[in-house]
Amino acid sequence: MARYLFTTWEGGGHVQPMLLVARDLAARGHAVLAVSDPCNAPDAAALNVPFRAWTTAPFQTGKTRDDDRLKDHEADNPLEVIQRLLDRVMAGPALAYAEDTLAAIDAFAPDVVVSQELLLGSMAAAQARGLPLALLAANVWSLPTLAGAPPLGAGMLPATTDEERAMHAMVGQMSRTFFQAGLPDLNAARVALGLPPLADLFKQLDAAKAILLATSRAFDFAPDPLPVPFAHVGPYLADPAWVEPFAPPPGDAPLVVVSFSSLYQAQEPALRAIIAALGQLPVRGVVTTGPTLDPARFEAPANVAVVRGASHGDLLKDAALFVTHAGHGSTLRPLMAGVPLLCLPMGRDQNDNAARVVHRGAGLTLPADADAETVAAAVRRLLDEPTFRAAADVLGAAIRADEAARDAAAALEALAT
Q1: Going edge to edge, which strands form the sheet with 230-232?
Q2: 395 in a domain, yes or no?
Q3: Same domain, yes or no: 286 and 203
Q4: 25 and 156 together in one domain
Q5: In sequence order, what DSSP letters do the residues of 57-79 get, joined into one string?
Q6: Burial of 251 (0-12, 13-18, 19+ CB in 10 A)
Q7: Sequence-ordered list of residues with C-beta below 8 angstroms from that of 151, at least 6 positions apart, any chain
């Protein structure tokens, strides 16, 4: 039996996959402990994963729009988004995350530390104690360190020409340069931990013996095979703890499910346009707002139900279409059910997930500010043209095969030997 310490933060869809991996290790007889924001305690309890809350590091006690500390929807440009990540998660609080991680290490005595890929402070703490470190990313790789993958953020496709490869290299290098603004804070934390300073912020990732991508190889644009220490370990997806029992509206009309981020991204205008669009069509609509928004704030026609949470696993059994911001989980779960997608990305990794969907013919993408008539036209096309459903079936079957073969627990066990 080995002991595994997991560290993550309330950033939306990456929390539950890490807890699912921890649960799998516990089922194999290992001891596990997850450290995250207090608001994630119910998620851990639902999976019977022992939990410890951040105390010195930044933390959220709730999941409403007012609780969100990143507030990247307020950023005016990609550089400001990076700066918020650096100041509020990656580098600014690195020492605080390190101190809490060290306290958890002292109390739990882990054999392996598993960190979410943005928590540089937790990585430094594991390095300071000489513990094996793994990173677990519950999405396509988000940082500009993976050669051969398109730069993240703009929805770029794999390079097929020398000109495109040069463009990718330039964008990737620019992104790496932007992130170096966090290097002084990271180095200050490292020096406080007795570690030498780094010349490049991303050198902190070199402490990891494994970087596990909890996504589907069939979905990703990453190089195959991945360079060491990267490895695809399959998607880890399930309904969150806060879903509520719900039956879709009765009838035989096509069921269209709508779900945007579980975090706040100022998605109210997009949701209202989608609700208005569905009201124009002979469909049954179900809109799940998640914990950040009150369903009562949205007026809906008779054929559309707006609820805070409902089991997507249940709804997808009958769904004809899924409308989403294209977060990782909200993209893969419909595909795994063979359901085509209408994507309205709003930032983060969403343009990149949407690009993967459209490239495989499994859906369409619209701008997040598309009006109701434009959304309605896209919904009609996706429902009327069978090629989208066929492509979603093909891609979904490949993703399900990756899920069936997922092996994060085995990869982590190898680090404890």
Answers
A1: 51-53, 31-36, 3-7, 112-115, 133-137, 210-213, 230-232
A2: yes
A3: no
A4: yes
A5: S---S--STTT-S--GGG-SSHH
A6: exposed
A7: 144, 168, 171, 172, 175
Domain range enclosing 166: 3-208
Instruction: Give the total residue count for the chain.
Output: 417
Query: What's residue 25's pLDDT?
Result: 98
* Nearest residue to 217 via CA among 403, 15, 414, 408: 403
Rounded-to-integer distance, Cα 151 and Cα 146, Å = 9
CATH for 70: 3.40.50.2000
In this structure, which amino acid lies at residue 395?
A: L
- Exposed / middle / buried, residue 356 (Cβ in 10 Å: 0-12, 13-18, 19+): buried
Q: Torsion angle of alpha carbons 96, 99, 102, 108, nearest 10°?
A: -80
**What average pLDDT does the chain have?**
95
The residue ranges of the chain whose pLDDT is under 50 are none
In 3D, which of 332, 315, 355 has the Cα closest to residue 237? 332
Query: 317-354 pLDDT, tens per residue?
Result: 999 999 999 999 999 999 999 999 999 999 889 999 99
- Pairwise CA distance, residues 145 & 164, whole Å: 18
Q: How many CA atoms lie within 13 A of 219 on its CB side?
A: 35
Question: The whole model's pTM is what?
Answer: 0.95
